[in-house]
Amino acid sequence: MPTLQSYKTNQAHTERMYCVKCRQHVIVTAPELVKLKNNRFALRGKCPHTGVMCYKVVTRERAKELVPGIE
Ligand SMILES: [Zn+2]
Q1: Domain-embedded: residue 49
Q2: Per-residue confidence (pLDDT) for residue 61, from 0 to 100
Q3: Closest by alpha carbon to 54, among 13, 23, 12, 10?
Q4: Burial level of 33, CB count in 10 A (0-12/13-18/19+)?
């Protein structure tokens, strides 16, 4: 997934994300917030079981809650 920028979220933040290798939702700790080329935002983090990178598109409002100050 092509990304422009990445931002750290709170290290205590956990997010339920889908892992394509586990084929189920897993809990990812402190995923990064990334800005995509289409100007949307997504969370990106490694599955704790397989290490596979998981992505989850989030709304701009949600992105701003996770990383205050972003545009
Ligand atoms: Zn996994």
Answers
A1: yes
A2: 96
A3: 23
A4: buried
In a domain, 71, yes or no: no
Mean pLDDT by 10 residues, the chain (71 residues): 90 97 98 95 98 97 95 82
- Ligand 1 centroid to Cα of residue 24, in Å, is 8
**How many structural domains are present in the chain?**
1
Q: Which structural domain, as residue segments, surrounds residue 37?
A: 3-66
- Within a domain: 60: yes
For residue 71, report the distance from its CA to the centre of ligand 1, in Å. Answer: 31
Distance 27 CA to ligand 1 centre (A): 10
Distance 11 CA to ligand 1 centre (A): 20
25 alpha carbon, distance to own chain's centre:
13
